[in-house]
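Q: Two folds, back to back.
A: First:
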Amino acid sequence: MCGVVGLVGPHPANRVIYEALTVVQHRGQDAAGILTSDGRQVYLRKDNGLVRDVFHNRHMVQLKGNMGVGHVRYPTAGSDSKAEAQPFYVNSPFGLALGHNGNLTNADHLRNELFQEGLRQLNTSSDSEILLNVLAHELHEVMGGGRTELTPEDLFRSVRGVFERCHGAYAVVVLIVGYGLLVFRDRYGIRPLIYGTMNDDKGVSHLVASESVAMDVLGYQIERDIRPGEALFIDLKGNVHSHQCVEEVSHNPCIFEFVYLARPDSIIDDIPVHRTRLNMGERLAKKVLREWPDYEIDVVIPVPDTSRTAALQMAYAFGVNYREGFIKNRYMGRTFIMPGQAERKRSVRQKLNVIDQEFAGKAVLLVDDSIVRGTTSKQIVQLARDAGAKKVYFASAAPPVRYPNVYGIDMPCSEEFVAHNREVDEIALEIGADKLIYQDLEDLVASVRECNASITEYETSCFDGIYLTGDVGSEYLERVENSRRDSVKSDQKQNELDNTEVYACQ
Protein backbone atom coordinates (compact mmCIF):
# COMPACT_ATOMS: atom_id res chain seq x y z
CA MET A 1 0.00 0.00 0.00
CA CYS A 2 1.41 3.32 -1.11
CA GLY A 3 0.09 6.65 -2.32
CA VAL A 4 1.06 8.26 -5.62
CA VAL A 5 0.48 11.76 -7.02
CA GLY A 6 1.29 13.28 -10.40
CA LEU A 7 0.78 16.86 -11.59
CA VAL A 8 1.31 18.96 -14.71
CA GLY A 9 -0.05 22.45 -15.26
CA PRO A 10 0.65 26.18 -15.48
CA HIS A 11 1.48 26.66 -11.79
CA PRO A 12 4.39 25.55 -9.58
CA ALA A 13 3.84 21.91 -8.69
CA ASN A 14 5.53 21.68 -5.30
CA ARG A 15 2.73 22.95 -3.05
CA VAL A 16 -0.07 20.99 -4.73
CA ILE A 17 1.90 17.73 -4.64
CA TYR A 18 2.83 18.31 -0.99
CA GLU A 19 -0.79 18.92 -0.01
CA ALA A 20 -2.01 15.95 -2.04
CA LEU A 21 0.51 13.70 -0.29
CA THR A 22 -0.70 14.84 3.12
CA VAL A 23 -4.22 13.83 2.08
CA VAL A 24 -3.11 10.31 1.05
CA GLN A 25 -0.70 10.02 4.01
CA HIS A 26 -2.82 7.18 5.41
CA ARG A 27 -1.56 5.02 2.54
CA GLY A 28 2.03 5.19 3.74
CA GLN A 29 3.79 6.64 6.77
CA ASP A 30 7.25 5.16 6.28
CA ALA A 31 8.73 7.49 3.65
CA ALA A 32 7.81 10.36 1.34
CA GLY A 33 9.26 11.92 -1.78
CA ILE A 34 8.63 14.62 -4.39
CA LEU A 35 10.41 15.12 -7.70
CA THR A 36 9.68 18.17 -9.84
CA SER A 37 10.98 19.45 -13.16
CA ASP A 38 11.16 22.80 -14.96
CA GLY A 39 11.47 21.05 -18.30
CA ARG A 40 15.26 20.92 -18.22
CA GLN A 41 16.34 19.79 -14.77
CA VAL A 42 14.84 17.66 -12.03
CA TYR A 43 14.68 18.50 -8.33
CA LEU A 44 14.26 15.69 -5.80
CA ARG A 45 13.64 15.47 -2.09
CA LYS A 46 12.83 12.16 -0.37
CA ASP A 47 13.47 10.61 3.01
CA ASN A 48 11.98 8.33 5.65
CA GLY A 49 9.18 9.85 7.69
CA LEU A 50 5.85 11.60 7.36
CA VAL A 51 5.28 14.21 4.67
CA ARG A 52 5.33 17.06 7.19
CA ASP A 53 8.68 15.88 8.55
CA VAL A 54 10.40 15.19 5.23
CA PHE A 55 9.60 18.55 3.62
CA HIS A 56 10.55 21.86 5.21
CA ASN A 57 10.47 25.32 3.65
CA ARG A 58 14.06 25.04 2.47
CA HIS A 59 13.21 21.87 0.60
CA MET A 60 10.02 23.22 -0.95
CA VAL A 61 11.65 26.27 -2.51
CA GLN A 62 14.18 24.00 -4.19
CA LEU A 63 11.45 21.89 -5.83
CA LYS A 64 11.08 24.03 -8.94
CA GLY A 65 8.91 23.53 -11.97
CA ASN A 66 5.30 23.11 -13.05
CA MET A 67 5.23 19.34 -13.16
CA GLY A 68 6.13 16.62 -10.71
CA VAL A 69 5.38 13.31 -9.04
CA GLY A 70 5.06 12.42 -5.38
CA HIS A 71 4.92 9.25 -3.30
CA VAL A 72 4.23 8.07 0.23
CA ARG A 73 5.35 4.58 1.15
CA TYR A 74 4.85 2.02 3.79
CA PRO A 75 7.30 -0.86 3.74
CA THR A 76 6.42 -3.79 1.52
CA ALA A 77 8.37 -7.04 1.74
CA GLY A 78 12.08 -6.28 1.81
CA SER A 79 11.60 -2.57 1.05
CA ASP A 80 11.88 -0.46 4.16
CA SER A 81 15.22 1.35 3.90
CA LYS A 82 15.74 5.04 3.25
CA ALA A 83 17.32 4.26 -0.13
CA GLU A 84 14.02 2.81 -1.34
CA ALA A 85 11.96 5.94 -0.82
CA GLN A 86 10.31 7.01 -4.06
CA PRO A 87 10.18 8.53 -6.67
CA PHE A 88 13.00 6.71 -8.47
CA TYR A 89 14.82 8.45 -11.31
CA VAL A 90 16.87 7.39 -14.35
CA ASN A 91 18.42 9.92 -16.70
CA SER A 92 17.98 7.95 -19.93
CA PRO A 93 16.03 8.11 -22.09
CA PHE A 94 14.99 11.75 -21.62
CA GLY A 95 14.91 11.53 -17.81
CA LEU A 96 12.20 9.43 -16.15
CA ALA A 97 10.92 9.64 -12.57
CA LEU A 98 8.47 7.02 -11.32
CA GLY A 99 6.16 6.50 -8.36
CA HIS A 100 4.43 3.14 -7.99
CA ASN A 101 1.70 1.63 -5.84
CA GLY A 102 1.48 -2.15 -6.00
CA ASN A 103 3.80 -5.12 -6.34
CA LEU A 104 5.35 -7.06 -9.20
CA THR A 105 4.99 -10.81 -8.88
CA ASN A 106 7.80 -11.58 -11.36
CA ALA A 107 10.31 -9.09 -9.94
CA ASP A 108 13.15 -11.61 -9.52
CA HIS A 109 12.91 -12.72 -13.14
CA LEU A 110 12.83 -9.11 -14.34
CA ARG A 111 15.81 -8.16 -12.20
CA ASN A 112 17.95 -10.90 -13.76
CA GLU A 113 16.66 -10.09 -17.23
CA LEU A 114 17.46 -6.39 -16.87
CA PHE A 115 21.03 -7.15 -15.85
CA GLN A 116 21.75 -9.91 -18.35
CA GLU A 117 20.02 -8.41 -21.40
CA GLY A 118 19.83 -4.70 -20.66
CA LEU A 119 23.05 -4.38 -18.62
CA ARG A 120 21.12 -2.37 -16.04
CA GLN A 121 22.43 -2.35 -12.48
CA LEU A 122 19.73 -1.83 -9.85
CA ASN A 123 20.56 -0.11 -6.58
CA THR A 124 17.70 -1.31 -4.37
CA SER A 125 15.50 -4.34 -3.79
CA SER A 126 12.39 -2.34 -4.71
CA ASP A 127 10.26 -3.68 -7.53
CA SER A 128 9.40 -0.05 -8.34
CA GLU A 129 12.98 0.48 -9.49
CA ILE A 130 12.59 -2.63 -11.64
CA LEU A 131 9.38 -1.23 -13.15
CA LEU A 132 11.12 2.06 -13.94
CA ASN A 133 14.02 0.33 -15.67
CA VAL A 134 11.71 -1.90 -17.68
CA LEU A 135 9.89 1.21 -18.90
CA ALA A 136 13.20 2.94 -19.67
CA HIS A 137 14.39 -0.10 -21.62
CA GLU A 138 11.16 -0.36 -23.59
CA LEU A 139 11.23 3.34 -24.40
CA HIS A 140 14.87 3.12 -25.50
CA GLU A 141 13.95 0.27 -27.84
CA VAL A 142 11.03 2.21 -29.29
CA MET A 143 13.24 5.27 -29.82
CA GLY A 144 15.98 3.27 -31.57
CA GLY A 145 17.55 4.70 -34.69
CA GLY A 146 18.65 8.02 -33.26
CA ARG A 147 15.23 9.69 -32.99
CA THR A 148 15.03 12.37 -30.30
CA GLU A 149 11.43 13.59 -30.64
CA LEU A 150 9.06 11.67 -28.39
CA THR A 151 5.41 11.14 -29.41
CA PRO A 152 2.43 9.81 -27.44
CA GLU A 153 2.43 6.77 -29.71
CA ASP A 154 6.03 6.05 -28.67
CA LEU A 155 4.99 6.10 -25.04
CA PHE A 156 2.00 3.85 -25.58
CA ARG A 157 4.13 1.31 -27.45
CA SER A 158 6.56 1.36 -24.53
CA VAL A 159 3.79 0.85 -21.98
CA ARG A 160 2.48 -2.09 -24.01
CA GLY A 161 5.93 -3.61 -23.59
CA VAL A 162 5.74 -3.00 -19.84
CA PHE A 163 2.37 -4.75 -19.66
CA GLU A 164 3.76 -7.74 -21.54
CA ARG A 165 6.74 -8.08 -19.21
CA CYS A 166 5.54 -6.91 -15.78
CA HIS A 167 3.07 -9.08 -13.88
CA GLY A 168 1.22 -8.16 -10.72
CA ALA A 169 -0.39 -4.94 -9.52
CA TYR A 170 0.71 -1.43 -10.39
CA ALA A 171 -0.73 2.06 -10.45
CA VAL A 172 2.06 4.22 -11.85
CA VAL A 173 2.88 7.90 -12.34
CA VAL A 174 5.90 8.82 -14.49
CA LEU A 175 7.41 12.26 -15.09
CA ILE A 176 9.17 12.56 -18.46
CA VAL A 177 11.52 15.52 -18.43
CA GLY A 178 10.64 18.05 -21.10
CA TYR A 179 7.52 16.18 -22.24
CA GLY A 180 4.88 15.61 -19.59
CA LEU A 181 3.22 13.11 -17.29
CA LEU A 182 2.52 9.44 -18.09
CA VAL A 183 0.24 7.31 -15.92
CA PHE A 184 -0.98 3.73 -16.27
CA ARG A 185 -2.73 0.99 -14.33
CA ASP A 186 -2.32 -2.78 -14.50
CA ARG A 187 -4.67 -4.91 -16.57
CA TYR A 188 -6.68 -5.96 -13.49
CA GLY A 189 -7.08 -2.49 -11.98
CA ILE A 190 -6.08 -3.86 -8.59
CA ARG A 191 -4.70 -0.60 -7.19
CA PRO A 192 -6.68 2.65 -7.55
CA LEU A 193 -5.70 5.63 -9.71
CA ILE A 194 -7.91 8.63 -10.51
CA TYR A 195 -7.57 11.70 -12.75
CA GLY A 196 -8.89 15.23 -12.24
CA THR A 197 -8.50 18.80 -13.51
CA MET A 198 -8.69 22.41 -12.35
CA ASN A 199 -9.20 25.34 -14.69
CA ASP A 200 -8.28 28.96 -13.95
CA ASP A 201 -7.16 32.08 -15.82
CA LYS A 202 -3.72 30.55 -16.46
CA GLY A 203 -4.98 27.31 -17.92
CA VAL A 204 -5.76 23.74 -16.90
CA SER A 205 -3.92 21.80 -14.18
CA HIS A 206 -4.01 18.01 -14.39
CA LEU A 207 -3.76 15.93 -11.21
CA VAL A 208 -3.54 12.15 -10.84
CA ALA A 209 -3.70 10.51 -7.40
CA SER A 210 -4.36 7.23 -5.65
CA GLU A 211 -7.64 8.42 -4.17
CA SER A 212 -10.35 10.91 -5.12
CA VAL A 213 -10.12 12.63 -1.74
CA ALA A 214 -6.97 14.38 -2.99
CA MET A 215 -9.09 15.97 -5.73
CA ASP A 216 -11.80 16.99 -3.27
CA VAL A 217 -9.50 18.66 -0.77
CA LEU A 218 -7.52 20.56 -3.41
CA GLY A 219 -10.56 21.67 -5.38
CA TYR A 220 -10.01 19.58 -8.51
CA GLN A 221 -12.84 18.30 -10.66
CA ILE A 222 -12.83 14.52 -10.88
CA GLU A 223 -12.72 13.42 -14.48
CA ARG A 224 -12.54 9.63 -14.16
CA ASP A 225 -10.58 6.63 -12.93
CA ILE A 226 -7.73 5.34 -15.04
CA ARG A 227 -9.02 2.16 -16.64
CA PRO A 228 -7.32 -1.24 -16.25
CA GLY A 229 -4.69 -1.63 -18.94
CA GLU A 230 -4.92 2.04 -19.93
CA ALA A 231 -2.16 4.62 -20.28
CA LEU A 232 -2.81 8.36 -20.08
CA PHE A 233 -0.26 10.97 -21.23
CA ILE A 234 -0.58 14.69 -20.49
CA ASP A 235 1.92 16.82 -22.39
CA LEU A 236 3.36 20.17 -21.31
CA LYS A 237 0.72 22.04 -23.31
CA GLY A 238 -2.05 20.30 -21.40
CA ASN A 239 -3.12 18.01 -24.22
CA VAL A 240 -4.44 14.69 -22.92
CA HIS A 241 -3.75 11.49 -24.87
CA SER A 242 -5.10 8.09 -23.83
CA HIS A 243 -4.72 4.59 -25.16
CA GLN A 244 -5.94 1.16 -24.13
CA CYS A 245 -2.62 -0.67 -24.12
CA VAL A 246 -4.10 -4.04 -23.15
CA GLU A 247 -7.26 -5.32 -24.79
CA GLU A 248 -7.82 -8.36 -22.59
CA VAL A 249 -8.53 -6.83 -19.21
CA SER A 250 -10.47 -7.87 -16.14
CA HIS A 251 -11.46 -5.19 -13.64
CA ASN A 252 -10.77 -6.62 -10.18
CA PRO A 253 -10.17 -3.86 -7.61
CA CYS A 254 -8.57 -4.92 -4.33
CA ILE A 255 -11.42 -5.40 -1.87
CA PHE A 256 -9.13 -4.55 1.06
CA GLU A 257 -9.13 -0.96 -0.20
CA PHE A 258 -12.76 -0.78 0.90
CA VAL A 259 -12.26 -2.74 4.11
CA TYR A 260 -9.32 -0.76 5.47
CA LEU A 261 -6.89 1.00 3.15
CA ALA A 262 -8.88 3.85 1.61
CA ARG A 263 -10.27 6.90 3.34
CA PRO A 264 -14.04 6.69 3.86
CA ASP A 265 -14.59 9.92 1.92
CA SER A 266 -12.89 8.52 -1.20
CA ILE A 267 -14.61 7.15 -4.28
CA ILE A 268 -12.74 4.33 -6.02
CA ASP A 269 -13.91 3.10 -9.43
CA ASP A 270 -17.20 4.95 -8.90
CA ILE A 271 -17.69 3.15 -5.59
CA PRO A 272 -18.16 5.35 -2.48
CA VAL A 273 -16.01 3.79 0.24
CA HIS A 274 -18.31 5.10 3.00
CA ARG A 275 -21.33 3.41 1.45
CA THR A 276 -19.54 0.06 1.21
CA ARG A 277 -18.71 0.18 4.91
CA LEU A 278 -22.32 0.94 5.79
CA ASN A 279 -23.26 -2.11 3.73
CA MET A 280 -20.65 -4.21 5.54
CA GLY A 281 -22.17 -3.27 8.89
CA GLU A 282 -25.68 -3.96 7.70
CA ARG A 283 -24.82 -7.40 6.32
CA LEU A 284 -22.78 -8.35 9.38
CA ALA A 285 -25.66 -7.34 11.63
CA LYS A 286 -27.99 -9.59 9.63
CA LYS A 287 -25.58 -12.47 10.14
CA VAL A 288 -25.56 -11.87 13.90
CA LEU A 289 -29.36 -11.75 14.02
CA ARG A 290 -29.57 -14.90 11.91
CA GLU A 291 -26.99 -16.99 13.78
CA TRP A 292 -27.28 -15.49 17.28
CA PRO A 293 -30.93 -14.45 17.68
CA ASP A 294 -30.76 -14.36 21.48
CA TYR A 295 -27.77 -11.99 21.48
CA GLU A 296 -26.97 -10.04 24.63
CA ILE A 297 -25.48 -6.72 23.55
CA ASP A 298 -25.83 -3.53 25.58
CA VAL A 299 -23.59 -1.30 23.49
CA VAL A 300 -21.67 -1.32 20.20
CA ILE A 301 -18.21 0.27 20.31
CA PRO A 302 -15.96 0.68 17.27
CA VAL A 303 -12.21 0.22 17.21
CA PRO A 304 -11.25 3.59 15.70
CA ASP A 305 -11.14 4.69 13.01
CA THR A 306 -11.96 2.55 9.98
CA SER A 307 -14.69 0.47 11.63
CA ARG A 308 -16.85 3.38 12.82
CA THR A 309 -19.17 3.29 9.81
CA ALA A 310 -19.89 -0.44 10.05
CA ALA A 311 -20.30 -0.27 13.84
CA LEU A 312 -22.83 2.56 13.60
CA GLN A 313 -24.93 0.57 11.15
CA MET A 314 -24.79 -2.52 13.38
CA ALA A 315 -25.93 -0.59 16.44
CA TYR A 316 -28.84 0.78 14.43
CA ALA A 317 -29.82 -2.73 13.29
CA PHE A 318 -29.70 -4.08 16.86
CA GLY A 319 -31.51 -1.12 18.36
CA VAL A 320 -28.79 -0.57 20.96
CA ASN A 321 -26.53 2.33 21.82
CA TYR A 322 -23.50 3.20 19.71
CA ARG A 323 -20.74 4.66 21.86
CA GLU A 324 -17.17 5.83 21.43
CA GLY A 325 -15.26 3.86 24.04
CA PHE A 326 -11.72 4.34 22.78
CA ILE A 327 -9.97 7.66 22.29
CA LYS A 328 -7.25 7.57 19.68
CA ASN A 329 -3.94 9.37 19.82
CA ARG A 330 -3.93 11.11 16.43
CA TYR A 331 -0.15 11.29 16.36
CA MET A 332 0.39 7.55 16.28
CA GLY A 333 0.68 5.63 13.02
CA ARG A 334 -1.56 2.77 11.93
CA THR A 335 -0.53 -0.36 13.85
CA PHE A 336 -1.26 -2.64 10.89
CA ILE A 337 1.59 -1.06 8.92
CA MET A 338 4.18 -0.96 11.69
CA PRO A 339 7.20 -3.10 10.84
CA GLY A 340 7.61 -5.39 13.85
CA GLN A 341 5.50 -7.26 16.39
CA ALA A 342 7.14 -5.64 19.41
CA GLU A 343 6.54 -2.17 18.00
CA ARG A 344 2.90 -3.01 17.22
CA LYS A 345 2.29 -4.28 20.75
CA ARG A 346 3.76 -1.17 22.32
CA SER A 347 1.83 1.12 20.01
CA VAL A 348 -1.65 -0.20 20.89
CA ARG A 349 -1.41 1.03 24.47
CA GLN A 350 0.02 4.32 23.31
CA LYS A 351 -2.56 4.68 20.58
CA LEU A 352 -5.82 3.97 22.43
CA ASN A 353 -7.17 5.11 25.78
CA VAL A 354 -10.40 3.81 27.29
CA ILE A 355 -13.49 5.65 28.54
CA ASP A 356 -14.27 3.31 31.45
CA GLN A 357 -17.92 4.30 31.93
CA GLU A 358 -18.83 3.07 28.46
CA PHE A 359 -17.70 -0.45 29.41
CA ALA A 360 -18.39 -0.89 33.12
CA GLY A 361 -20.97 -3.63 33.78
CA LYS A 362 -22.01 -3.93 30.12
CA ALA A 363 -22.05 -6.62 27.45
CA VAL A 364 -20.00 -4.90 24.77
CA LEU A 365 -19.74 -5.66 21.05
CA LEU A 366 -16.43 -4.37 19.70
CA VAL A 367 -16.35 -3.86 15.94
CA ASP A 368 -13.15 -3.73 13.88
CA ASP A 369 -12.62 -3.61 10.13
CA SER A 370 -10.54 -6.80 10.10
CA ILE A 371 -8.30 -9.05 12.18
CA VAL A 372 -4.85 -9.83 10.83
CA ARG A 373 -2.31 -10.94 13.42
CA GLY A 374 -4.75 -10.60 16.31
CA THR A 375 -2.22 -8.68 18.41
CA THR A 376 -4.25 -5.48 18.40
CA SER A 377 -7.56 -7.32 18.88
CA LYS A 378 -6.26 -9.22 21.90
CA GLN A 379 -5.05 -6.07 23.60
CA ILE A 380 -8.27 -4.20 22.84
CA VAL A 381 -10.37 -7.00 24.31
CA GLN A 382 -8.22 -6.86 27.44
CA LEU A 383 -8.61 -3.06 27.62
CA ALA A 384 -12.38 -3.56 27.57
CA ARG A 385 -12.21 -6.14 30.36
CA ASP A 386 -9.93 -3.92 32.43
CA ALA A 387 -12.51 -1.14 32.05
CA GLY A 388 -15.13 -3.41 33.67
CA ALA A 389 -16.99 -4.93 30.72
CA LYS A 390 -19.27 -7.79 31.76
CA LYS A 391 -18.95 -9.53 28.39
CA VAL A 392 -16.74 -8.71 25.42
CA TYR A 393 -17.87 -9.79 21.98
CA PHE A 394 -15.88 -9.03 18.85
CA ALA A 395 -17.06 -8.53 15.26
CA SER A 396 -14.91 -8.24 12.14
CA ALA A 397 -16.35 -6.46 9.09
CA ALA A 398 -14.08 -8.67 6.95
CA PRO A 399 -13.69 -12.47 6.74
CA PRO A 400 -10.74 -14.27 8.37
CA VAL A 401 -7.42 -13.26 6.80
CA ARG A 402 -5.73 -16.57 6.04
CA TYR A 403 -3.48 -15.96 3.01
CA PRO A 404 -0.72 -13.46 2.21
CA ASN A 405 -1.40 -10.55 -0.10
CA VAL A 406 1.13 -10.29 -2.95
CA TYR A 407 -0.28 -7.25 -4.73
CA GLY A 408 1.08 -4.44 -2.60
CA ILE A 409 -0.10 -5.00 0.98
CA ASP A 410 2.63 -6.08 3.38
CA MET A 411 0.66 -8.62 5.37
CA PRO A 412 2.72 -11.08 7.42
CA CYS A 413 3.51 -14.66 6.56
CA SER A 414 0.47 -16.89 6.94
CA GLU A 415 1.68 -18.60 10.12
CA GLU A 416 1.54 -15.18 11.84
CA PHE A 417 -2.16 -14.71 11.01
CA VAL A 418 -4.31 -15.38 14.04
CA ALA A 419 -6.72 -17.28 11.73
CA HIS A 420 -3.97 -19.59 10.48
CA ASN A 421 -5.06 -23.21 11.16
CA ARG A 422 -7.69 -22.00 13.64
CA GLU A 423 -11.48 -22.21 13.65
CA VAL A 424 -13.51 -19.19 14.71
CA ASP A 425 -14.01 -20.43 18.28
CA GLU A 426 -10.27 -20.98 18.61
CA ILE A 427 -9.57 -17.47 17.34
CA ALA A 428 -12.05 -16.06 19.87
CA LEU A 429 -10.19 -17.90 22.62
CA GLU A 430 -6.86 -16.61 21.33
CA ILE A 431 -7.92 -12.94 21.39
CA GLY A 432 -9.84 -13.41 24.66
CA ALA A 433 -13.33 -12.62 23.34
CA ASP A 434 -16.50 -14.27 24.66
CA LYS A 435 -17.78 -14.54 21.10
CA LEU A 436 -16.34 -13.72 17.67
CA ILE A 437 -18.31 -12.96 14.50
CA TYR A 438 -16.70 -12.68 11.07
CA GLN A 439 -18.22 -11.26 7.88
CA ASP A 440 -18.80 -13.86 5.16
CA LEU A 441 -16.79 -13.29 1.98
CA GLU A 442 -19.91 -13.39 -0.16
CA ASP A 443 -21.45 -10.63 1.95
CA LEU A 444 -18.28 -8.55 1.80
CA VAL A 445 -18.16 -8.72 -2.00
CA ALA A 446 -21.88 -7.96 -2.20
CA SER A 447 -21.41 -4.93 0.06
CA VAL A 448 -19.03 -3.41 -2.49
CA ARG A 449 -20.69 -4.70 -5.66
CA GLU A 450 -23.96 -3.05 -4.59
CA CYS A 451 -22.36 0.34 -5.22
CA ASN A 452 -21.26 -0.38 -8.80
CA ALA A 453 -22.93 -3.30 -10.51
CA SER A 454 -20.61 -3.03 -13.53
CA ILE A 455 -17.73 -4.45 -11.46
CA THR A 456 -18.60 -8.01 -10.57
CA GLU A 457 -15.31 -9.53 -9.36
CA TYR A 458 -12.76 -8.32 -6.82
CA GLU A 459 -9.24 -9.21 -5.78
CA THR A 460 -9.87 -11.18 -2.56
CA SER A 461 -6.75 -13.34 -2.28
CA CYS A 462 -6.03 -12.64 1.41
CA PHE A 463 -9.41 -14.21 2.23
CA ASP A 464 -9.69 -17.05 -0.30
CA GLY A 465 -6.12 -17.69 -1.53
CA ILE A 466 -7.08 -17.14 -5.19
CA TYR A 467 -4.42 -15.09 -7.01
CA LEU A 468 -5.94 -13.74 -10.18
CA THR A 469 -2.68 -13.04 -12.04
CA GLY A 470 -2.16 -16.81 -12.29
CA ASP A 471 1.59 -16.71 -11.59
CA VAL A 472 1.58 -17.09 -7.80
CA GLY A 473 2.49 -20.60 -6.70
CA SER A 474 3.77 -22.25 -3.54
CA GLU A 475 7.41 -21.45 -4.32
CA TYR A 476 6.67 -17.76 -4.79
CA LEU A 477 4.55 -17.62 -1.63
CA GLU A 478 7.31 -19.31 0.35
CA ARG A 479 9.81 -16.65 -0.75
CA VAL A 480 7.40 -13.85 0.10
CA GLU A 481 6.57 -15.28 3.50
CA ASN A 482 10.23 -15.79 4.38
CA SER A 483 10.84 -12.10 3.71
CA ARG A 484 7.88 -11.02 5.84
CA ARG A 485 8.56 -12.82 9.10
CA ASP A 486 8.87 -10.44 12.00
CA SER A 487 12.29 -11.87 12.84
CA VAL A 488 13.51 -10.93 9.35
CA LYS A 489 12.06 -7.44 9.63
CA SER A 490 13.76 -6.93 12.98
CA ASP A 491 17.11 -7.93 11.47
CA GLN A 492 16.55 -5.58 8.53
CA LYS A 493 15.69 -2.74 10.88
CA GLN A 494 18.81 -3.35 12.95
CA ASN A 495 20.99 -3.46 9.83
CA GLU A 496 19.55 -0.14 8.74
CA LEU A 497 20.32 1.38 12.15
CA ASP A 498 23.84 -0.04 12.07
CA ASN A 499 24.43 1.41 8.61
CA THR A 500 23.11 4.76 9.74
CA GLU A 501 25.54 4.81 12.65
CA VAL A 502 28.47 3.94 10.39
CA TYR A 503 27.50 6.62 7.92
CA ALA A 504 27.21 9.21 10.67
CA CYS A 505 30.74 8.50 11.87
CA GLN A 506 32.36 8.89 8.48
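A: Second:
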Amino acid sequence: MNEEEFEIAEKMEKFGDSFVKCLAVCFYHADRPNIDKLKNAFSEYWEQYKKIN
Protein backbone atom coordinates (compact mmCIF):
# COMPACT_ATOMS: atom_id res chain seq x y z
CA MET A 1 0.00 0.00 0.00
CA ASN A 2 1.41 3.37 -0.92
CA GLU A 3 1.29 6.43 1.34
CA GLU A 4 -1.81 7.97 -0.26
CA GLU A 5 -3.73 4.69 -0.01
CA PHE A 6 -2.69 4.29 3.61
CA GLU A 7 -3.92 7.80 4.43
CA ILE A 8 -7.29 7.09 2.80
CA ALA A 9 -7.64 3.83 4.73
CA GLU A 10 -6.83 5.73 7.93
CA LYS A 11 -9.63 8.21 7.16
CA MET A 12 -12.00 5.31 6.54
CA GLU A 13 -11.04 3.81 9.90
CA LYS A 14 -11.35 7.11 11.75
CA PHE A 15 -14.49 8.60 10.18
CA GLY A 16 -16.39 5.64 8.73
CA ASP A 17 -19.31 3.68 10.05
CA SER A 18 -18.74 0.14 11.31
CA PHE A 19 -18.68 -1.38 7.81
CA VAL A 20 -16.22 1.18 6.44
CA LYS A 21 -13.99 0.73 9.48
CA CYS A 22 -13.87 -3.01 8.79
CA LEU A 23 -13.16 -2.27 5.14
CA ALA A 24 -10.17 -0.16 6.21
CA VAL A 25 -8.79 -3.16 8.10
CA CYS A 26 -9.17 -5.23 4.93
CA PHE A 27 -7.09 -2.66 3.07
CA TYR A 28 -4.37 -2.85 5.73
CA HIS A 29 -4.11 -6.62 5.29
CA ALA A 30 -4.49 -6.82 1.51
CA ASP A 31 -1.73 -7.41 -1.00
CA ARG A 32 -1.55 -5.28 -4.17
CA PRO A 33 -3.99 -7.35 -6.30
CA ASN A 34 -6.56 -7.36 -3.49
CA ILE A 35 -6.10 -3.65 -2.75
CA ASP A 36 -6.97 -2.99 -6.38
CA LYS A 37 -10.00 -5.30 -6.16
CA LEU A 38 -11.22 -3.56 -3.00
CA LYS A 39 -10.75 -0.11 -4.53
CA ASN A 40 -12.75 -1.21 -7.58
CA ALA A 41 -15.52 -2.96 -5.63
CA PHE A 42 -15.93 -0.11 -3.13
CA SER A 43 -15.00 2.83 -5.35
CA GLU A 44 -17.76 5.07 -3.99
CA TYR A 45 -16.41 4.75 -0.45
CA TRP A 46 -12.83 5.11 -1.69
CA GLU A 47 -13.61 8.38 -3.50
CA GLN A 48 -15.66 9.70 -0.58
CA TYR A 49 -12.86 9.25 1.93
CA LYS A 50 -10.21 10.38 -0.54
CA LYS A 51 -11.88 13.83 -0.53
CA ILE A 52 -11.66 14.24 3.26
CA ASN A 53 -8.79 16.49 4.33
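Q: And?
A: The longest helix spans residues 3-15.
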